[in-house]
Amino acid sequence: MCDSSELQELLDQLFTGPACSWCGDHGRKLYGKKVMLCSSCRNIKALVRKWAENANANPFGADELAIAKRMEKMAKDESARFGHLNKRQIDGVDLEHAFNEVARIAIHQELPYNDANVFEQCFTLAQRRFLFYLLSRIIHIYERRHRKITAAYASD
Which of 56, 62, 97, 123 could form an SS bridge with 127, CB 3.0 to 4.6 Å? Predict the structure, then answer.
């Protein structure tokens, strides 16, 4: 059984090194010299560039450009949400929301709310950070795969 300091060291190792400039993902191969982007964010950047240049050539060009820009914003929001978990103050409410989001992804149902105090009392800060990291990986992958459809139906 490992203690909190070992978990914290593991998290610190996971969050060292380069990360995607937009989504903040540390586990993917990065491309670029000035702005380091993962392949997903790089594709979004290419879409924004493509539709910005050709917005008038296609009747749906303006809509596609808006969707691509929403996708870019969603990727950048992920960095703020899941970046540098090794230094963030993760509380029971954060874990409760993350578990609920994973349940929505996996079983398409929400979990009942009332576990925040249990998470706060039973886990140390390092354990909460590690648990949130594991849940965030599931959420991050799901959001990356469904970013275009979410952006298409999102309202500004």
Answer: 123
Q: How do residues 40-66 score in pLDDT, each as one tens digit?
A: 999 999 999 999 988 788 888 888 999
Q: How many Cβ atoms are within 10 Å of 57's Cβ, its own excluded?
A: 8
Two structure tokens written together for 40 = 């997903």
The pTM score is: 0.83
Alpha carbon 104 to its chain centroid, in Å, reads 16
Distance, in Å, from the CA atom of 44 to the CA atom of 21, rounded to the nearest integer, reads 13
Contacts of 83-87 with CB under 8 Å at 24 or more apart are 83/19, 83/24, 84/15, 84/24, 85/11, 85/15, 85/129, 85/132, 85/133, 85/136, 86/8, 86/11, 86/12, 86/14, 86/15, 86/129, 87/15
C-alpha 124/C-alpha 27 separation (Å) is 25
